[in-house]
Design a protein that fits this description.
The structure holds 2 protein chains of 2 kinds.
Chain A (H helix, E strand, L loop, with lengths): L2 E3 L4 E5 L4 E3 L2 E3 L5 E8 L6 E7 L6 E3 L2 E6 L4 E6 L8 E9 L6 E2 L3 E6 L1
Parallel strand pairs in A: 2-12
Antiparallel strand pairs in A: 1-4, 3-9, 5-6, 5-10, 7-8, 8-9, 10-11, 10-12
Chain B lengths: L3 E4 L2 E4 L5 E7 L5 E7 L5 E8 L5 E2 L10 E5 L2 E6 L8 E8 L5 E3 L3 E5 L1
Parallel strand pairs in B: 2-11
Antiparallel strand pairs in B: 1-3, 3-8, 4-5, 4-9, 5-6, 7-8, 9-10, 9-11
The chains are: A mainly beta, B mainly beta.
Chain lengths: ~110, ~110
């Protein structure tokens, strides 16, 4: 079965702290895709990143970085020097095969206090 | 990336009535999807809307309750039929991008009284 687990329900940090959001996935497929989405209080889902199963290279985009490790089936997301605007719900998601369906984790609420 | 709009953005409906939600994409896309997000919960896929064929529904969702239309490559509708308070949720449509990512509309916040 395809499954995504985000064990952290809610994280609170003070501005400028670094924070890591955990994501563990399960799939039997050898071809799969992992995603992170941000849902700010306005409600709209914002696509942040996609990774395919053949590319384990970590990625950095500004204050955001992602660590993909197939050995532990994890795709963790780190925000460096967090800001209040980072406060949102963050979802990790998985698709497989031809990449049609998305299965979402439960989400992690991130609260960044000033 | 695709830009997606939804109408209405929110509605309050009476029990037993139906509501049709419209989803418009700014470019032609092969795959469109409908999700439900219950209060404080994650997203659950309702169905995949295929152009030219019937929608494919996920386990727990049926066509009589959530009929879907997909008349062309830029537009889809989802109807929530015979509503009950349990149908109060955010309904989101999405479109599949060129590299398997999905782009989401702003959602329709439905409250059933």
């Amino acid at each position: 079965a395809q499954k995504v687990t985000q064990a952290q329900t809610e994280i609170s940090v003070v501005e400028k702290e670094d924070v890591t959001l955990d994501c563990v996935y399960e799939t039997r497929d050898t071809t799969y895709y992992l995603f992170w989405y941000k849902q700010p209080p306005s409600g709209e889902l914002v696509f942040l990143i996609r990774r395919n199963s053949f590319d384990e290279q970590n990625e950095i985009s500004g204050r955001y970085s992602w660590n993909f490790q197939k050995s532990t089936s994890s795709f963790n997301f780190t925000i460096t020097a967090s800001q209040v605007v980072d406060s949102a719900v963050y979802f990790c998601a998985l698709s497989w095969g031809y990449g049609n369906k998305l299965v979402f984790g439960a989400g992690t609420i991130l609260r960044v206090k000033s | 990336s695709a830009v997606i709009s939804q109408k209405p953005s929110r509605d309050i409906c009476q029990r037993g009535t139906s509501l049709t939600i419209q989803c418009q994409v700014d470019s032609q896309v092969t795959m469109m999807f409908w999700y439900r997000q219950q209060p404080g919960q994650s997203l659950t896929l309702i169905a995949t809307a295929n152009q030219g064929s019937e929608a494919t529904y996920e386990s727990g969702f049926v066509i009589d309750k959530f009929p879907i239309s997909r008349p062309n490559l830029t537009f889809s509708t989802l109807t929530v039929s015979n509503m009950s308070p349990e149908d109060s949720s955010i309904y989101l449509c999405s479109a599949k991008g060129g590299h398997y990512e999905q782009y989401f509309g702003p959602g329709t916040r439905l409250t059933v009284t």
